[in-house]
Amino acid sequence: MLLSGTVIVDAETVIHDGAVVVADDRIVAVGDRSTCLERYPDHERDEYDLLAPGTVGAHVHSVQSLGRGIADDTALLEWLFDYVLPMEASLSAEEMRAAAELGYLEMIESGTTTCIDHLSVHHADEAFEAARDLGIRGRLGKVMMDKEAPPGLLEDTDDALSESERLIRRYHGVEGGRIRYALTPRFAVSCTEACLRGTRELADAYESVMIHTHASENRDEIETVEEETGRRNVHWLNEVGLTGEDVVLAHCVWTDETEREILAETGTNVTYCPSSNMKLASGVAPVHDYLDRGITVALGNDGPPCNNTLDPFTEMRQASLLQKVDRLEPQALPAPTVFEMATVNGARAAGFDRVGNVREGWKADLIGLETDITRATPLHDVLSHLVFAAHGDDVRFTMVDGEVLQRDGEVVVADAEEIRARAREFAADLDVAP
Amino acid sequence: MLLSGTVIVDAETVIHDGAVVVADDRIVAVGDRSTCLERYPDHERDEYDLLAPGTVGAHVHSVQSLGRGIADDTALLEWLFDYVLPMEASLSAEEMRAAAELGYLEMIESGTTTCIDHLSVHHADEAFEAARDLGIRGRLGKVMMDKEAPPGLLEDTDDALSESERLIRRYHGVEGGRIRYALTPRFAVSCTEACLRGTRELADAYESVMIHTHASENRDEIETVEEETGRRNVHWLNEVGLTGEDVVLAHCVWTDETEREILAETGTNVTYCPSSNMKLASGVAPVHDYLDRGITVALGNDGPPCNNTLDPFTEMRQASLLQKVDRLEPQALPAPTVFEMATVNGARAAGFDRVGNVREGWKADLIGLETDITRATPLHDVLSHLVFAAHGDDVRFTMVDGEVLQRDGEVVVADAEEIRARAREFAADLDVAP
Question: Which GO terms describe its molecular function (chains A, B) (predicted)?
């Protein structure tokens, strides 16, 4: 396939009147349009105003999608234990499937091509199957909770680990490596030391399996961990093996100097979730400090009950604006830095190689946007536009691994109407009041 | 016209399966659909998923629209004096008209039905004419700068005031009162005492003319005012007559206790501009304190060079999220409070009576949104949806004073393609580098 338009190769390179040629799952050529047309005259053609690498949602809860808007204006632990966990506990396999499909649908429609997805304790198979069917690239994991969990979610430590291992064997690396596994203890508050140490053992036992958990999102959370373990949260995670290049820690809002050193020294990846941190009033992550230390910082929307959308453009905008106002520094997180977070840094955090740039030999994970709209007029700078003014609604084309998932604004891998209708039906029966 | 759908009457009342009946410029009935259909069987009909009061952009610079994205990552005074003012100074009448049309087009498309518009020093007629033609409700004013202004914008005090008076006589109250005048000194830094006192005199001389200016947005700004006048900014404005129920002060980020007392005692209106305050790293306005004191707080997008869009839904979301994270208080500015700011409070600040609710006898300023989209699925609470997940792209219908401006997603009062094309053409010739 030969796609033409203005091509954003990476945060530094833009090709006007350019083209991208895709064969199988790879980009085979990127350059100016006329040269590409000459070299590949027989390829199927399509055209979009702007072509860019697909974005990476590096911390998301697709299976919370049925709970969009159920718990506005509440703090993290109340939000979690009174609303979101009871909802997760109540979901049947069918409902979990519907929730995951709704989440992936929203991501595909709005330009997310890769996600790191924190599922739930039960029915993780449903999300894996939905991700396979809908074609998104994902690092997914079943949640483990063997301590401090509401009825219906609390598990035996061994069960949590053995179910995780079953899922690794079943799904890790399927679809040509498009779907991969992340061991997913919920957070230190809800997991025993045995569970956390078991997580590290399993991660080491299977090649390229990663670890994904929440860390230091909220002050009550870090206090609880400190009371229970006598250590600051990241120190504790480090002690039980939950740091390293194969670990993605979501949030990391409340870390001290010594914890930041650990993150940097161990090469641990951090996912910044600005909208979620704002809406749950968690705080502002010290993103500039992380970047200064060379930590890979990715970007995530978190879940629909705390965002309330999965739009990656809203998140890019928020990422920059929140740092600017928090530091009273208008130069903070400029557009190119945010764009890197949302693309190639996210892919690195998720452990996907050659994903996140539009470059020869890289994976064909692409999006096409329209810019013949008022919000994009005039268009002085495409990166500025993408970060500060674009919106998921502008995305008209989505491709993962060379497969077209959305074309001309229509998702082609699933019946979007049907997914929404099923989600509405299940959501109407949810018992979400605390 | 009989419009049916879920009707948001105000921040507290939602009618499912409802209808709104419009005759001339007024809402003549609001209620359940079947009753309305029975009572008004011969009215032209239309249907949208969600009907709501149009939003009020209570601080905007439509004529800066050609500068969308020209000065990202800069602080207020640099942003203003190195980029935005030179751009404003350079605009011809034709370019000013194109910029205003682009701004109003974006507002109409995304659901803003009333604006308080801070124009520029020259060619204000062009914006008034554009507002008349495009049908938006507006409180507009020519900017006055008789001190501290770049070449091309600096005016004589008398000229600034007499030109303002000419515009009042020409446009204040035209279109059945849809267009009204606000005397618009830029800010205390750029206006002499004579200009500010003259502003108050003129406002008192003409019935229902208001005053609109920037105040205490930035720390450098308030320091400058304090150096020059020996007073905190709001004290100074109060002394020269720029407080009161007929005054709208944009921003008010850096006010102390005594200034807040003045704002409350004088009934001065405040416009909160969260995205602009974040992007320019100005700071966080003490909105809760203002609300606690009974101050009318409205909401504004400010201009495209500092936002970078005029989407009122982005601004509502931002309004709440910024307060939550700043106060580390998840209950801060819940959806209904924000919705009131963006509708009826904005109308009150702008001095338009019976605007901002969907209520019998009130002005027919309405918007219709679609919710059969993934981002609105499921839809547990329509107000939560509007504030936290909706977007200007969802707006398919816009009516002001009973006149349809947009229907089925198409603006009917202007040629949107042509406005965008003209804006692109002029923007390409802008000399915006400092």
Answer: deaminase activity; hydrolase activity, acting on carbon-nitrogen (but not peptide) bonds, in cyclic amidines; metal ion binding
